[in-house]
Amino acid sequence: DTAVSQTPKYLVTQMGNDKSIKCEQNLGHDTMYWYKQDSKKFLKIMFSYNNKELIINETVPNRFSPKSPDKAHLNLHINSLELGDSAVYFCASSHPTLQETQYFGPGTRLLVL
Amino acid sequence: GDSVTQMEGPVTLSEEAFLTINCTYTATGYPSLFWYVQYPGEGLQLLLKATKADDKGSNKGFEATYRKETTSFHLEKGSVQVSDSAVYFCALSRSSNTGKLIFGQGTTLQVKP
Fold this sequence. Notes:
heterodimer, A: mainly beta, four-stranded antiparallel sheet, 0% helix, B: mainly beta, 12 strands, globular
């Protein structure tokens, strides 16, 4: 039983393309997040949603657009991909009363050529 | 701004050795402090946490004590195993229950048999 799942696991694409990463959690959590982990393993929050409402938006380029169709899903759409977007993207979720205890998905490794 | 600094890795130890991974933080007020662990090919998972000064978090033989006077939260384990090989992330949350975690750069631990 996967708690937080992401698809795809690997994504290789050309510069300028548009791509989406999907995330789903079956923990019943209200809050979901997207993180970016760079090649040096530095991890930084990008967005958080609480029950489909945007809560945190950390100065991410507007080429990145999160979409939450329901509280169990938070997808990340990226337009006009750039080389610098290459990274591992992690989705996470948490219970609303314990938001610092976050459950992470396995990550999506994005490589932009 | 708030930040977390960890010791540079990789840290390489023999099985049953004593482990210390240093973590210091910069933040106003009284942040909560966390250690997350990322096993190879997986997402992060919470290892332990402490929410106020002098608290000790512990889990799976790992411990860390919240030291406000030295703004530190060093991770220790008395006897490491090969299965402890992973990347360890120190993190803080300044505002209560916002879900915004600020991570250190991660420290890779390699344990050899």
